[in-house]
Amino acid sequence: MVLSMTHYNGKAPAELKFNNILYTKANWRATITINRPEVYNCLDLETLRELSSAFEDASWDDNVAVLIVTGAGDKAFCTGADMKEWKETFLDSPNDFYKWMGVFIETYERLRNIGKPSIARLNGMVVGGGNELQMSCDLAIGADDTFIRQAGTSRGSVAAAGATQWLPIIVGDRRAREILLLNEPVPMAKALEWGLVNQCVPRAELDNAVDVMAEKLVNKLPECTRYTKQQLNFWREFSWSMTIGHAKDWLTVHTPAEEIREGINAFAEKREIDYKALRKKQSNTSKRKPS
Fold it and tell me: pLDDT tens across 1-16, in order?
């Protein structure tokens, strides 16, 4: 049976009936907006699945030349995994985290491999998996009043779904270690200086800057652009393929671990972690017999 060519066309956004994202298409552009501003546009299972479907649709639609990814509101672009879902679902059922992580990986891989250039419109803070999302895009433009931050070693995770793999490539080894080990906010102007974004603009100019860049990308040859992107992805895909399976398993096995549990619970309870007390508790020094 030969399928009609229309079987591989994109759909009208309304047909997709998304709940957690907004999806529009016009003027050779598709725009995906994570629409969970009340939780800083974090990613639960449903949101990941909707993003994956939208990425596929944008890839298949020949009337889409450029994909723009952003977040609703002005506080957050994306803040990574939904910690409420993590606490309620994964701490006591780590095998379910393994399944969730599989969806996370597939979604980010689909974004990187849509065959069209993508722009991250950084409208607010970019945290954790949100930074890995913006690095999965080809280009990024950020509002000058916001920041990028990793939080894994502070909050009970390892940023091994893009950050440990790609930050050394993008900003260099020393700066990557600073971002991942210290977890301090990187103001957007510094992110520009470090090469983590392409432009840092006043918030009032963000939409225009994204539109100008998108128009430049529209006016390029599509097949040449697609293959250029494929070649550019080599080092990211190499580092990703060598580590992501291990990361998926390690994170699953350690999901119920004491320090992971403490980090997630502290976040949910809006309290600080007593890191030194945790270190003392984990230490075997007190168990040693005097010589």
Answer: 454 556 889 999 999 9
